[in-house]
TrEMBL record:
This is Stage II sporulation protein D. It comes from the Bacteria. Residues 44-134 form the Sporulation stage II protein D amidase enhancer LytB N-terminal domain. It comes from Sporosarcina siberiensis. Signal peptide: none annotated. The gene is spoIID.
Length: 309
């Protein structure tokens, strides 16, 4: 006997933009070099070198050029905002943005290192200084791997309505993303251990999944059980918050099927590659995923920084 049910989840970090920064198009104002302090590294990394390290870690180098450029601009924006323009350190893992050092890139790419490094260097340099802004302030440029056909809203994810993090269509990813559909099988014992309580047949029968407008699970409810969809994703280690659950009563097996990969907020990386293959520019891709935004070069106008220049 199979009971087929549905679940989902997503997480997001939103940071207040520093007030000491003006984002503008003009380039004649002399400013200081921004270096990024990466946790675990002995020396700060120049901004554009940092961006290259993030792009190499976060997106396949085989992706379309315009998708890679969109990733570079998003990564630069995310880092500048999170570090307050180099004043604070940033992690090199998924808690912020994954960063590959030069040594890691050499190890990862092997004989293709020189070719891939030239490609990324060229594309990152073509976007140098470009950031994503909303009402002339840098955004929290969230991104993730694969959508379920549309992105998630910041409101659904974290409870805050962010105007540039709304749900938009992201079609075609099911045809290109290897992780679009995933399955995870848990024994009932594993399920119980993850959720911290003993489930029985009646709890599975009464389990209700409340989905939101993007098709992801907002809330999971059963007898004496109430959990947000994003929390369910975390405790079960699921690929996304758009998922179905089937419980095998005979064998005490829980099968979870997910659609998409990641929290779903902001730019879908595989979606960006699909759009780029259709001829979209990096600017078009970013302005699609981040509603109402613009791409502008940044200028750091901080008095202490300018005195030292």
């Amino acid at each position: 006997m199979l009971l087929t049910l549905m679940l989902f989840f997503v997480p997001i970090l939103l940071h207040k933009a520093p007030d000491a920064v003006i984002v503008q198009q003009e380039s004649e104002v002399e400013t200081c070099q921004v270096d990024i302090t990466v946790i675990g590294l002995d020396e700060p990394v120049p901004l554009e070198e940092y961006v290259k390290g993030v792009v190499s870690a976060e997106m396949p180098v085989t992706f379309q050029d315009e998708a890679l450029k969109a990733q570079a601009i998003a990564a630069r924006t995310y880092a500048l905002r999170l570090t307050e323009f180099g004043r604070k350190p940033i992690a090199a893992d998924v808690s912020a943005q994954v960063f590959n050092t030069l040594e890691k890139r050499k190890e990862r790419w092997g004989k293709d290192f020189k070719r891939n490094e030239r490609k990324l260097t060229k594309l990152v340099n073509e976007t140098a200084g470009e950031t994503i802004v909303y009402e002339n302030k840098m955004i929290s440029a969230m991104f993730f791997s694969t959508s379920n056909g549309k992105t998630e809203t910041a409101q659904n994810y974290g409870g805050n309505d962010i105007p540039y993090l709304q749900s938009v269509d992201s079609p075609g990813e099911d045809k290109v993303a290897p992780s679009f559909n995933k399955e995870k099988e848990l024994t009932l014992a594993e399920w119980n251990a993850a959720l911290g309580m003993q489930w029985n047949d009646e709890m599975f029968k009464s389990l209700k999944l409340v989905r939101n407008s993007t098709g992801r699970v907002q809330k999971v409810v059963s007898n004496n059980f109430d959990l947000k969809g994003r929390e369910m994703r975390e405790v079960l280690g699921l690929a996304s918050t758009d998922f179905d659950i089937a419980y095998d009563l005979t064998n005490n097996i829980v099968l979870v099927k997910t659609v998409g990969y990641g929290h779903g907020v902001g730019m879908s990386q595989y979606g960006a590659d699909v759009f780029a293959a259709e001829g979209w520019t990096a600017k078009q891709i970013l302005e699609h995923y981040y509603s109402g935004t613009e791409i502008k070069n940044f200028t750091l106008l901080d008095s202490e920084c300018l005195k030292s220049c």
